[in-house]
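User: For a teaching handout, I'd like to show students what a predicted protein-ligand complex looks like in token form. I'll give you the sequence and the SMILES for magnesium ion. Please answer with just the structure.
Assistant: Understood, here is the input followed by the structure.
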Amino acid sequence: MNCGYVALIGRPNVGKSTLMNHLLGQKLSITSRKPQTTRHRILGIKTSEAGQAIFMDTPGMHSDEKRVLNRYLNKTADSTLLGVDVVVWVLDGLYWHEYDERIFKKLEAAGLPVILVVNKIDKIKDKQTAMAFFAEAKQKYPFEQIVPVSALKSTNLDVLEQQIMALLPEAEPIYPEDQITDRPERFFVAEIVREKLTRRLGDELPYAMTVEIELYEEHPDLCKIYANIWVERSSQKSIVIGKQGEMLKKIGTEARLDIEKLIGQKVYLQLWVKVKKGWSDNERALHGLGFTDTE
Ligand SMILES: Nc1nc2c(ncn2[C@@H]2O[C@H](COP(=O)(O)OP(=O)(O)OP(=O)(O)O)[C@@H](O)[C@H]2O)c(=O)[nH]1
Ligand SMILES: [Mg+2]
């Protein structure tokens, strides 16, 4: 049996989290149209007859390092390259971005086997251009494989999974076969609330929004959850609450339904919106909200 760690890396919004969820056959990592949706490294464990692949979804790598939060996200993505066995580099379609040069350098330095995944092929109509792009990519870097996929439609993911498995070292599984992640449920509860906020209000709310679980109480017939939504300005607070509280109610309902699915129990969810000025630029505030390490 093969077993090992697989880093999913790439620029924001290319579909890393969608890819991990579809490889696992379970929604674990939150996704949205807005870049920088993923903020923490998220482990997704897939055990099959061939062995165990431990995927690590990472925040997108990007060049804007002006804010403390952005630097934190890049550091998290970079540090994932330490201690993994295989790297899966995800691209959105058939083109390179100027920041990709930096990714090539990081990969060269890491010296790990790399699979290039060209994602969102459901949007690519021109096969000739695709073939030319793959040939060019082979010249650019000694990729182990170049695999076109559609993460969203689960196209070619079985092939990708086989290629990944073949590159993992021979080893016994690290995690029990029924375990799919290493984070507690309350972490994913906060993430689900953040997904609903990002999907509904991503354009209006900058990255300065985060979710903190204040109370998580499991009763035999109900799980009681209080969560704080932190924003930077009182104008953003009004946006989240909406006219007569309508927006917050919608977000709360959507989140509650997903949380109930995740934990398999009825949920009472109470959301509060709170203002903390300039948190995404203040190291101490970031730490207070759980961004405590560069894992
Ligand atoms: N058409 C199409 N869209 C996709 C595909 N994979 C992902 N997407 C969409 O691309 C957007 C970004 O997907 P994510 O999975 O959140 O991207 P990400 O790379 O994790 O982004 P960050 O966490 O921000 O770095 C979402 O709107 C997805 O639905 C695909 O194969 N085809
Ligand atoms: Mg993501």
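For the handout, you might add this sentence: The beta strands are 2-9, 42-48, 51-57, 86-92, 114-119, 145-148, 209-218, 223-231, 267-275.
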